[in-house]
Amino acid sequence: MVSEATNTLKKSVFWDWMTTVDHKKIAILYLLAGTLFFLKAGLMAVIFRIQLIAPEMEFISGQTFNEFITMHGTLMLFLAVTPIFFAFMNFVVPLQIGARDVAFPFVNALGFWLFFLGGLLLSLSWFFGGAPDAGWTSYVPLASREFGGVGIDFYVLGLQISGFGTLVSGINFIVTIINMRAPGMTMMRLPLFCWTTLLTSILIVFAFTPLAAGLALLMLDRIFDAQFFIPGEGGNVVIWQHIFWIFGHPEVYILVLPAFGMISEVIPAFSKKRLFGYTSMVFAVLIIAFLSFMVWMHHMFTVGIGPIANSIFAISTMTIAVPTGIKIFNWLFTMWGGKLTFNTAMIFAASFVPTFVLGGVTGVMLAMAPVDHLYHDTYFVVAHFHYIIVGGIVLGIFAALFYWYPKMFGHKLNETLGMIMFWLFYIGFHLTFFIQHILGLVGMPRRVYTYLEGQGMDTMNFISTIGAFLMAVAVIILIINIVYSALKSEPVTVDDPWDARTLEWATHTPVPEYNFAQTPQVRSLDPVFYEKIHGNGKMKPAEPLDDIHMPSGSILPFFISLGLFIAGFGFISFHLDLFISPYVLIAIGGIVTFGSMGLRSMQTDHGYHISKETVEEMEKELS
Amino acid sequence: MAENLDQSFEESSMSNEEKRKINREQRIQIIAFAFMIGITILAFLAVGSEQLPGVFTIPFILFLAFVQLILQLYYFMHLKDKDHGWPNSFMISGLVLAAPMVVSLILLIGIVKY
Ligand code: HEM
Ligand SMILES: [Cu+2]
Fold first, then answer.
1. Is residue A595 domain-resident?
2. How far is the CA of A224 from the centre of ligand 2 (A)?
3. How far is A345 from chain B (nearest CA, A)?
């Protein structure tokens, strides 16, 4: 944990965390909140897998099933995986580029609170007439005011608010990486995790804006009687699908690029080699990021756009496989001939590669427009994206967790428990999802809450559910591991417990509030490794030791977000029978939000300084 | 250090060279502004006069809009200046990415098939 010893200002613990603008603490807030949503969404998955364990089960009703799959998808993508990525980006990126914090610490805190309160708003739906039930894609007309219940309003406003949070964090990361690099840290010396963070943030800026527009249109349709998506009144439902997938396909790359970056950090560290083909890796992610905007129609092959449009998008989709293939080979060549250490982090990272390939192969299969008419809306698609999301992204997250845990919390996770978890998770994952390819091919439709006996689906569904149980057990073991390690594990006192290569390992453990007492001078790609070979193992400073300027904490990000939360609830309550008028809620929310913004603009706050003596004292204590 | 940040300076610390640059910049801004008002009036006239055929007016005002956009971005938002490589590349990639989206939202909404 970023221990109290690393704080120079004394505050109560609660107030400290509510007002923090320190990127390392915001990272931990993101990690906690993301994990909570991850557990919630995972629990739902286990429950609806139980519903599917046998034909014609009546464990949960069809309505509950629909609510669960919708919330599962929405939570996992927007409120679990993205925040967990933001946790690692927040913690690692400033350290990797040699900065004292992100470019806009206040905005960083604002991003977190917007995400968290938006997620909370979405979750409130359980207590007000049921969760959204139109799938994470929320297609109209199913989600229109005529057919969709009040749950959809929670979906629209909850995602709108948490989407703002994601958007401002994305902007913050772009500015940080472009402007805050230490001397010598040129773009082509950026670690790959920073590159993928930069590109993910760019994708967020370009993709979350169409989503915000689409959600706003849906909100107008549902709450203010507009007719953008109502065919009878001159609207068009296909527009929603376009807008959603213009956002949606870049979104899947928003999710996978950071995982690429994590793998590209872990594999070189435990192969004791520099990343093979660094330059081609950078260009591959650039091309992937660009192409991801040119393929959205592959989700709409069956809508009936016409053969020419379908062919163009089929081909553009397949081209993504080329840069992806380059990356796969580069990871393999990084391991080739390296001095491999297979600890938990590395084994998660290494097993990412083959499972991701399987997901990519089914992706190319799905991209063949004529055949997609067979696959579309079956379990084959479910298997495809879970191979990428679980077999790729979640494995990447686990690798990153085990790898950066000692820097974040000051002790390692237990390796034995880690290995047990890995095997349970890996076997469980393949049991659950491999068989779903075949289920899809024999014709099991996705998003349907039960199936009939004697159609050859019983055994396969049974196996799939057993696999889901194994994954659940693996996650429980991870939690046990976290608690066990917190109590039993020896504290890490060295800066660089893995003998790794990048700049974050040049900071002390625990990382002091100001990260680097003196901004380091970067002399090469993999700067820490370079100094170990060509220097004395310590980074050369780029500036004399001096007072360090720090941003002061603020409670305003919380209140700005709280106001939007209240106003969002107000908009939803047009469809609820509350004792209080929606207009009152909207007014209160508006006043809180804009009042806090006004306060922030009026305030003059230049932050504070940590004196040179304190820095020297802390440096001595930590080394 | 931080306390002084609020105080304003008594006289400008800019060199003559810098002042000349600022003046020139101001002149350019005003000229660009006048020109933009001019083409806006032109666009209104083209539509308002009701004399010109639609086949001419529509491409014509779209062209004017394009010129307007370039002036906006490069002169008003300073993309033409030095050290604007990053904003430039973001702006251009935004335009490149948005173009197919707009085209497809106009053409491909499933009524006519391609
Ligand atoms: C080689 C790269 C990829 C190709 C060629 C590809 C292709 C496709 C195609 C054609 C579909 C539509 C299937 C259908 O609905 O009939 C699809 C669905 C999907 N893909 Fe991929 N994909 C690729 C990579 C990814 C990645 C990296 C992710 C996630 C990080 C991903 C996540 C998804 C999701 C979530 C869906 C289903 C969306 C839904 O209908 O709910 N794909 N993919
Ligand atoms: Cu896609």
1. no
2. 31
3. 35
For the domain that residue A458 is a member of, what is the CATH number? 1.20.210.10
Q: Strands A608-610 and A540-541, how do they pair?
A: unpaired
In this structure, the number of other CB atoms found within 10 A of the CB of residue A20 comes to: 23
Q: Residue A318 CA: which ligand 1 atom is closest?
A: 5
Q: Is the CB of A380 under 6 A from ligand 1?
A: no
**A607 Cβ under 8 Å from any chain B Cβ:** yes
d(CA A249, ligand 2 centre) in Å? 4
The residue contributing the CA closest to ligand 1 atom 20 is A385
Give the Cβ contact number of residue B20 at 10 Å.
11
Q: In what helix (H) or strand (E) does residue A540 lie, and over which residues does it extend?
A: strand A540-541
Interchain contact, A242 vs B104, CB within 8 Å: yes
> Is A255 near ligand 1, meaning CB less than 6 Å away?
yes
Residue with structure tokens 């993709």? Answer: A207
The answer to whether the CB atoms of B109 and A238 lie below 8 A apart is: yes
Mean of per-residue pLDDT scores for chain A = 92
In Å, how far from its chain's centre is CA B78?
Answer: 9
Asked if the peptide bond before residue B59 counts as cis, ω within 30 degrees of 0, the response is: no
The DSSP letter of residue A526 is: S
Quick: pLDDT tens for A168-197.
Answer: 999 999 999 999 999 999 999 999 999 999
H or E stretch at A25: helix A23-51
By the 8 A CB rule, do A373 and A302 touch? Answer: yes
Domain ranges of chain B: 16-81, 83-114
A564 in Cβ contact with A157 (< 8 Å): no
Residue of A nearest to B101 (CA): A246
CB of A324 closer than 6 A to ligand 1?
Answer: yes
| pLDDT at residue A45 tops 50 | yes
Residue that the structure tokens 């005011």 belong to: A145
Q: Is residue A84 pLDDT above 80, yes or no?
A: yes
pLDDT confidence of A243, banded at 50, 70, 90? very high
Q: What's the pLDDT at A4?
A: 44
Q: Which domain holds residue A295?
A: 2-554+605-622
pLDDT tens-digit profile of B57-70?
889 999 999 999 98
Residue A543 falls inside a structural domain: yes
Evaluate the omega torsion of the peptide bond into residue A510 and state whether it is cis, within 30 degrees of 0: yes
Instruction: Count CB pairs under 8 A between chains A and B.
Output: 56
Q: Has residue A599 been placed in a domain?
A: no
Which residues have a beta carbon within 5 Å of ligand 2, which is an ion?
A 249
Burial of residue A475 (number of CB atoms within 10 Å: 0-12, 13-18, 19+): buried
Contacts of B109 in chain A (CB under 8 A): 236, 238-239, 242
CA distance A287 to chain B (A): 12
Domain count, chain A: 1
Q: How far apart are CA A614 and CA A617, in angstroms?
A: 5
Token representation of residue A469: 């149980």
Does any domain span residue A574? no
What region does A390 belong to: left with phi over 0, alpha with psi -120 to 50, or beta?
alpha
Nearest by CB to residue B108, choosing from A178, A309, A607, is: A309
Q: What is the ipTM of this complex?
A: 0.80
pLDDT tens digits for range A361-393: 999 999 999 999 999 999 999 999 999 999 999
